[in-house]
Amino acid sequence: MRRVAPDRLTGAVLPMAVWALHFVAIYSLSGLACGQGWLRTQHGGLETVSLLQMAVTLAAWSWLSWWGWRSWRCGRVLQAGDGGDDGRGRFLARLSLSLSAIAALAVLFTALPLPMLPPCAP
Amino acid sequence: MSAWPPFDHDRERAALARLWDNRPGLWGQLTAVNHSTIGLRYIATGLAFLLIGGMLAMFIRLQLAWPGLQVLDPQRYNQFVTMHGTTMMFLFAVPIMEGFAMYLLPKMLGSRDLPFPRVSAFGYWCYLFGGLFLYSSFLFGEVPDAGWFMYVPLTGATFSPGLGVDFWLIGVTFAEIAAVTAAVELIVAILITRAPGMSIQKMPLFAWYVLVTAFMIAFGFPPLILASVLLEIERAFGFVFFEVARGGDPLLWQHLFWLFGHPEVYIIFLPAAGVVSMIVQTFARRPMVGYSAIVLAVVTTGFLSFGLWVHHMFAVGIPLLALSFFSAASMAVAIPTGVQVFAWIATLWAGRPWMRAPMLHIMGFFIVFVLGGLTGVMLALVPFDWQAHDTHFVVAHLHYVLIGGLMFPMFAGLYYWLPLVSGRAPSKVLSRAGFWMVFIGFNLTFLPMHLTGLLGLPRRVYTYAPELGVHWLNLLSTAAGFLFAFGIVAILVDIALFFRHGRRTEANPWQAGTLEWALPWPVPMYNFASMPVVDNRDPLWMRPQIAGESARMGGLLGGPVPAHREVLGTGVLTAEPEQVIRVSSSTPLPLFAALAIAALLACFIAKQYLLSAAMLLPLLGVFAVWLWTTGDHHAPVRLPAGPALELPSQAASRNAPGWWALVISLLIDGSLFASLVFAYFYLWLGAPVWPPTGGMGGWGGPAVALALLIAAGAAVHAGVRGNRRGHGVRLRLGLAAGAALGAGFLAVHVQVLRQIVAAPSTHAYDSVVWMLAGFHGVHVAIGVLIAAFVWARSRRGHVDAVRALEPRIVDAFWRYAVGQGIVAWLVIHAFPRAL
């Protein structure tokens, strides 16, 4: 049996775990830049650290979109065939889809200031 | 389905009652482990601490009633403020909600008990003794006085040389054992002991709330436990983590504290919101509108609340961009909270609401909590926070959130479920009078504080200048504070009275839909004679006869009564019957274990460190007996579970409670370890040179140590594989080899570290490296002890290829210990070399 899929409990909450990973990643990158002075070179008006943080954001967004799409498909398949599970899989797939959407929003919301604020200004 | 073989139902039901009842007398109370007893005990103790914490608050209010008063001298004021916050957060809010969950969940989920009754009792004793430990500081005149968040450097040995801080760190950590054990207990209970048919999408919402809360405890409490341990070690043994002169960083404390402290707010709020969800649907007399949306909101809150901690630190000088991440998450978390509020309103709107005592408090909750949430969004904005930081505005906000988010739902819950416990109804007059006194008193106490705060009244200061012009508002707060306190006393008196003198109620007086209301009164200690089988979210609304069915013998687990207490284990998602879990009966072991810990900590605070270490022996002894006698190790592989139904015992089941307890415990432990790794990197970030002395030596020693550790894990794993094929000897050989290699690793690694790291008191680097290695070393030592235990169990024939739970546990633990060791090794040995 697949252990991590949108119609299982772990898979359904995975999008929020990705939000958390994204959060830790961009905050840690800020720490490296401001605490140790790493990744401070400029590229077209932005510092390396900001570009990296944006790349992480893009990666998180891509994964969340893919997972959301997978959850949606999973829910459709389960809706088409009854599945014999009393709607359980559909419930979890729907939960997974909604959590993907919320996580994607939260990732975007968190990352919104990245192009607007310098990484280490107090 | 054919029936059980014929048996005398009345006689067996009497036997079931005897099996589940606590023993008589005081000894019976001391040895009780049943969830009903323990849950009520948590609630009663929590209410006692509420009164104590409330009394402290009254003194604070008296002191602040007018400028220049001398009700409390400045030091006493600091002590009372500290103890008020600490009591309310750690000894009232968290434990009382655990009490609700422990008492209610098995009944609501259709089970007979929680899966680890001894752990429930142990947690309770730790909570009680931890609380008493903290309050014993009054006897010694060493009361903690550095604020409930214990900021360093104020709490370091230089500025707080007395024992007050030690009483706080040790007492609170002792009491936190209860939160952590409750988290394991509740997660496992919700995952694998639900009534047959109660698949995951049919769980009562309260179970969802508690499930998410318990996971939050699992990830949220370890940072504080670690921080407390670090600070205590710094104070007791001269290690360095927070002292700037030797490479430490006081902000590390704030990060670790608030990594716990913010999720803590939701750890308190979510179970209370679960209570609200249950009450709202009962009194709206219709199922909850948006069940899925609420589940979604609860899961989202559980995660997002971990991204808020720095909003308590907006004023400490962190770069703006980083602050904006936390500001965003702080605003975002209002969205799932809003979703829940709208779902509750929609449910009431769509239903035919019934205004009774519990609903009054729900209405109070709506108004107060929403106001607190709104000021929360204001404080999430960095520029506003800079203005209001450390003023009474924040005091007002946090009391609106916590009293709105916890106390009103808690009173609603008490009124709602007490007829189940007492079989009686509350008095209409007193319950309404109590509510209105609390509601009006609360608002008049705290609403003015928004204003006094904005006018500049600082928090935690024992008096203020008359020129500030806030004395009338403060006097109003104090007067209203007393009204508030009278209201709480009135409610508690009402509750106490209706236990004895209330009007008798019929079963299910609120006509609720969930399973706890299927129980007869007085509620039998075994809850259900036969396990209820459910097929929807509100079983009692859809099929009222379920009450009668589950009260009769003859169904699942309703056959001739065995010699051990049994709980039905069901599938995580499907809730199909999977196993028969034999749980422990009354025993003094949890009490003894908690007493041993209390003795150990008492010796520690008295600075009798050798004696304290010696107390580990009785503690380990009690735990060994505990483990050896837990459940029923003589249970056959398959046990009768119902008419013509046999199921595996837990020792032979894939989803055994012990297995899940291990998984959750390792999550908690992993969070503790991650906090320590975070501390390492945080200290590195602020250090100009790392390691401060430069050299790291050769790779040879570290490589040998790592090889020994991996070999230990591999030996245990090979032994466990042998057991799977039925070779008990190979299991024992593997365990013995693993234990020997593990001990070898410890010896070699200590030698290696002594060559490359200085004494811990030299620099924060040395302290954190020794701490990291020591933390992992303790795990290897525990792995050796577990291996010895399973070795003995295999030797005595309690373990084989089918009853493979214990080998699976030792294998998984060692895999975790090796994994943790590899990470620690990379951090200690590889990272500084790579710099």
Describe, in plain words, how this protein is organized in 3D.
With 122 residues, chain A is mainly alpha-helical. Chain A is 70% helix and 3% strand. Chain A contains 3 helices and 2 strands, in the order H-E-E-H-H. In chain A, helix 1 packs antiparallel against helix 2, helix 1 (9-36) packs parallel to helix 3 (88-111) and helix 2 packs antiparallel against helix 3 (88-111). By secondary structure, chain B is mainly α. Chain B has 26 helices and 6 strands. Chain B has helices at residues 9-20, 25-31, 35-64, 74-109, 117-135, 164-192, 205-237, 250-284, 291-304, 320-332, 334-350, 357-380, 382-388, 392-422, 428-454, 471-501, 539-542, 546-551, 589-605, 609-614, 616-629, 657-685, 700-724, 728-756, 764-795, 805-834, and strands spanning 424-425, 503-504, 565-570, 577-583, 638-642, 645-648. In chain B, a hairpin with a 6-residue loop joins strand 3 and strand 4 (577-583). The longest helix of chain B is centred in the first third of the chain and has 36 residues, at 74-109. The relative contact order of chain B is 0.10. Chain A binds chain B through residues 8-9, 13, 16-17, 19-20, 23, 26-27, 30-32, 34-36, 85-88, 91-92, 94-95, 98-99, 102, 105-106, 109-110, 112-114, 117-122, and chain B through 199-201, 292, 295-296, 299-300, 302-304, 306-307, 317, 319-322, 324-325, 328-329, 331-332, 335-336, 572-574, 681-682, 684-686.
The portion of residues assigned to helices of chain B is 55-70%
State Rg of chain A.
18 Å
Largest interface: A-B, 40 and 34 residues
Parts with pLDDT < 50 across at least 5 consecutive residues of chain A? none
Q: Largest beta sheet of chain B: what is the strand line-up?
A: 1-2
What is the residue-mean pLDDT of chain A, rounded to a whole number?
91
Structural domain tally of chain A: 1
CATH topology label of one domain in chain B: Cytochrome C Oxidase, Chain A
CATH H-level superfamily title of one domain in chain B = Cytochrome c oxidase-like, subunit I domain
What is the number of E strands of chain A? Answer: 2
What is the CATH first-level class name of one domain in chain B?
Mainly Alpha
Shape of chain B: globular
Termini gap of chain B: 69 Å
Mean pLDDT of chain B: 95
Number of helices of chain B: 26
- Count of helices of chain A? 3
**Poorly predicted segments of chain B:** none
Note the main sheet of chain B: 2 strands, antiparallel
Strand content of chain A: under 5%
Class computed from helices, strands and strand pairing of chain A: mainly alpha
